[in-house]
Design a protein that fits this description.
With 581 residues, the chain is of the alpha+beta class. The chain folds into three domains: 31-247, outer membrane lipoprotein receptor (LolB), chain A; 260-406 and 489-579, Alpha/Beta hydrolase fold, catalytic domain (Rossmann fold), CATH 3.40.50; 408-487, no CATH class. It has 14 helices and 24 strands. It has helices at residues 10-14, 32-35, 152-163, 312-322, 347-362, 379-390, 407-421, 426-445, 455-461, 467-474, 480-487, 491-495, 517-527, 565-579; strands spanning 37-48, 51-62, 68-78, 81-91, 97-106, 109-118, 121-128, 131-137, 143-145, 169-174, 179-195, 198-209, 212-219, 222-228, 233-237, 246-247, 260-268, 271-279, 287-293, 326-330, 367-377, 396-400, 502-507, 533-538. It has a 16-stranded mixed β-sheet that branches. Strands 17-18-20-19-21-22-23-24 form an eight-stranded mixed β-sheet, sandwiched between helices. Helix 5 crosses helix 6, helix 7 runs antiparallel to helix 8 and helix 8 crosses helix 11. The longest helix has 20 residues, at 426-445.
Length: 581
């Protein structure tokens, strides 16, 4: 999903790990006045691209016996329903969390999350229907509890940082995800922000939580605004800033760009798609060039998706330009400046778009049509060999986080691997894989799209399916035809037809594509008598091409860091050796 290769825990696990997996608490039995003295209160609004996602009213009380209690009520505005939230968090005198309960009520039922400080660490639990999951954060001395659905937790974090009760490096407990992530805080520093036409001054802390960068802005001792830079989310205290909130950026804050960029619009069937042509700033024309083919989901030309900023292709384009190589990257259909509908796109549609983008790149006078290479990442590494096998004019192929086995086999591996990492028993793994096999069999034998099937029809193929799980399947951002075409395809058959030089880069910490797939790609190319194959298996590299020294994780890390320099060096060195004069 997004730039990640599709992880269909779909009917097995993914539908159980709901967007708002949330506790057992019925809420406080006492009113706020009986609990302590109010020291802060407000109403946070959360928006993304101008769309309201969440409203939360909170009160922070100082307990008579010491410590603090945070109470809040909120509403998540989902497309087809409103989810009501209620939470209570208890803190010690040093703002260390001792207990937490969050309840979410929706039309599909109650979901809960809780956390308790125990001798073993911070114990977190999530319940949704009959599903119960738990995890413990052990050996963490500095913990800040930061649930994804509770903005007021950041108001307490700000107080803890200001009071010196929390060090600048700490562990962020994310109960919604049942994980603890390394975090660090920088600041404070002065900042200007705008609310309507008014320009105001405040102070800001920049907080890095795993791969997420968040800016906290305070004014007169209280949190008034928050910007999640990684996901493009803005939160503000509407009681103080009724006209909204936006940080005034410094000129040139994004840094310099390498190369000369221009916008290119091109047709793909009845659609018009848009992309960026990046040319080296110097050198002799026409340049060798690369067409960048994205991973799955609604991603733009830079491989960014709603809520996930990776910038993989922007950084790759800059590295190529610095090496004397042009590149073309484009918004997928239905994303950014490109027309069409991303959710209904089949794999065949995406292949047509790649072919159209290739034609557009060849039409550029600054590009040498005889030295064009395809670079595919994740799903793009499935699509690129097909286009290369069909088009003898393509000069080379680069596969980043690619696979030799079909997507059906890869998703089955993902299910088993994730369950093993979570400590599931052999019996639990076998049961989950049996369900996954039923799901895969349904998709392979399906016709049409998800909307063509009723719940009863789906349940006949997958007897364990609940209405809630079925709704999650139908709501997937990938069409049924996309899944079916990938699940029934044989990638090795296409690889055997590739005769141009190939570079394969896979990561040892990739939990979506095992690094051993590079061997399968090599074997398929060898069967096709391809002598020009270079394999780079990089340790400590995750699926989004970041250096990842920790244990493998599906909670993406290090996105606030650049693409691993080893990847950029491997690609540019290989391309220069083969295609740069």
């Amino acid at each position: 999903m997004n730039t990640k290769l599709l992880l269909i825990l779909g009917a097995v696990l993914g539908v159980l790990l709901l967007a708002f997996v949330l506790p057992h608490s019925e809420g406080p039995t006492k009113g706020p006045d009986e609990m302590g003295t109010q020291i802060a209160a407000g109403r946070f609004a959360v928006e993304q691209a101008g769309v309201r996602l969440l409203d939360e009213s909170y009160t922070l009380l100082a307990r008579p016996e010491g410590g603090y209690i945070l109470l809040s009520q909120g509403e998540i505005h989902a497309p087809d329903q409103t989810v009501k939230l209620s939470q209570e968090t208890d803190y010690g005198r040093d703002y260390a969390p001792s207990s937490y309960d969050l309840t979410a009520e929706s039309k599909t039922g109650r979901q809960t999350i809780s956390a308790r400080s125990a001798q073993s660490g911070l114990v977190m639990e999530a319940r949704a229907g009959l599903v119960h999951q738990a995890n413990t954060i052990k050996d963490a001395k500095e913990i800040a509890l930061l649930d994804n659905n509770v903005v007021s937790h950041y108001a307490v974090l700000l107080l803890a940082l200001r009071a010196g009760a929390l060090k600048t490096t700490f562990t962020a407990a994310i109960p919604q995800l049942l994980v603890g992530l390394p975090a660090k805080a920088e600041g404070p520093e002065k900042v200007e922000f705008r609310s309507g036409d008014e320009v105001l001054e405040g102070t800001a802390f920049r907080v890095h939580i795993g791969d997420t960068a968040i800016v906290l802005v305070e004014r007169e001792g209280r949190l008034v605004g928050l910007v999640n830079e990684t996901q493009g989310i803005v939160a503000f205290d509407s009681a103080v800033l009724p006209k909204g909130f936006a940080i005034i950026e410094e000129p040139g804050q994004e840094g310099s760009r390498v190369g000369i960029e221009s916008e290119v619009a091109f047709p793909s069937g009845d659609l018009t798609l848009a992309g960026t042509l990046t040319l080296p700033a110097s050198g002799r024309e026409p340049f060798p060039a690369a067409l960048l083919i994205h991973g799955s989901g609604p991603v733009d030309r830079d491989e960014n998706a709603p809520g996930l900023k990776t910038d993989v292709f922007r950084q790759l384009a800059e590295a190529l330009a610095a090496s004397g190589i042009a590149s073309f990257r484009f918004d997928k259909r239905g994303v950014g400046e490109s027309g069409g509908d991303a959710a209904s796109a089949s794999r065949a549609d995406l292949l047509d778009d790649v072919r159209a983008a290739l034609d557009a790149l060849r039409a550029q006078p600054e590009v040498d049509g005889g030295r064009i290479v395809l670079i595919g990442h994740s799903e793009g590494a499935y699509l690129a060999p097909i286009v290369v096998a069909e088009d003898p004019k393509i000069a080379g192929l680069v596969l980043l986080a690619g696979a030799a086995r079909s997507l059906a086999e890869i998703t089955r591996w993902q299910v088993e691997t994730l369950l093993r990492l979570q400590g599931a028993s052999d019996e639990q793994v076998s049961a989950a894989l049996a369900q996954e096999d039923q799901y895969l069999a349904f998709v392979k034998g399906s016709e049409g799209e998800w909307d063509d099937y009723s719940f009863d029809e789906l349940k006949r193929s997958m007897p364990w399916l609940t209405e809630q799980a079925a709704s999650a399947l139908v709501a997937t951002p990938l069409s049924l035809s996309w899944l079916r075409e990938h699940y029934t395809d044989d990638p090795q058959a296409w690889l055997r037809r590739v005769s141009v030089p190939v570079l394969v880069v896979n990561g040892g910490k990739d939990l979506q594509i095992p690094s051993s797939e590079a061997d399968g790609i090599r074997a398929a190319l060898a069967e096709g008598k391809n002598p020009e194959v270079t394999i780079r298996a990089l340790d400590d590299l995750n699926h989004l091409l970041r250096h990842h020294p920790e244990a493998p994780s599906l909670t993406y890390r290090h996105l606030d860091e650049p693409v691993d320099a080893r990847v950029l060096d491997a690609v540019t060195t290989w391309l220069k050796r083969h295609f740069v004069d």
